[in-house]
Amino acid sequence: MNAGIKTLKIDGRDVSARADQTILEVARENGIFVPSLCYLEGLSPVGACRLCLVEVKGASRLLPSCVTRVEEGMEVTTRSERLERYRRMILELLFSERNHICSVCVSNGHCELQSLAEKLLLTHVHFPYRYPRLPVDASHPRFVADHNRCILCTRCVRVCDEIEGAHTWDVMGRGIEARVITDLNQPWGDSESCTSCGKCVHVCPTGALSEKGRSVAEMAKRRQFLPYLTMMRTQR
Amino acid sequence: MSRLRLATVWLDGCSGCHMSFLDMDERLIELARKVELVWSPFVDAKEFPEQTDVTLVEGAVGTAEDEEKIRRIRARTRVLVALGDCAVTANVPAMRNPFGRQAALSRAYEENATRSQGSPSSEIPVLQNRVRPVHEIVPVDVFVPGCPPSAHTIYYVLEELAAGRMPDLSGRTRFGA
Asked: At what angle do helices B27-34 and B151-162 cross, to 10 degrees?
């Protein structure tokens, strides 16, 4: 028997996995849908958005499947009334926290937050909207950062650090005050570390980062490059 | 079978949802056999009618007048439908919310006016400080997101309600659709 292979059950189905895989990776390999926003294949997982929470038999709490490794004999449930309720609640909190106005957003029709809301049957937000006053940074010659649409998934931070190696992006502040920043909270256009590669723009799940000059619904993201770049670096 | 008593109202919105309603084209004739239109922006009645079966609400609640209207409508309606993103999320009208009422009035009536006479003080409804979605004011029975929801979606909603069923909108429309 190969010690590197684990067998487990996901939604009652027997599946096998490498010992170093996460529940989310294995679920997706087997065509089982688990929603996520911060996870992106090719970047290190951070378990920030909590949308990929699953139930694991014997565990008293819900576990984020993107950062939970498979174990022998594990019994995972990815769909339940409780999980769906929590996932919708998380989406509603994201919508109420900033100003996501889908109808006039550059990413309308191409947004992961918007399409997850549709997929998880969200028809309205129960929480009162906060309507914070947030800046739009258009100082970069090619790109725009609109903090009204940011969900703090940190994909931009990770791709810039792990793939581009520039680490222009980071997170400032805590809790509701947290915000992604370029360099030491300087305008993006003044950044000395930014290489203008645009990877952050294309991994951003919403309209928070976009290419300049894109109008409503015009900002479709292209992220096919990411798995190839990772593969080139790790499997060469 | 008696026809469904239908009302449509236009609060803080652009009328795009009503345009989408009209986009039903020839299905409007079919619909006319199933519903009786008792109130809408062009129906000449002075008072919102009692015992309305279904009211489609376009627009958010942005003024004291909107709020008074929606409370009266709710009290006189059996099934209240929030039609479109403004009613469901407050959408574009709510873009003034981070700035407040006074900033919005100054921008419209002073900064961008060639011959400024200041903000209006009478004759038009008083803006509230924040624009809110309908369900923050009164209970809503059916949510139909979309900017605007397609004519097909609106027809589906009315057809279901006319048949005495609650419409299931899952997968039919979305925010910003």
From this structure: 20
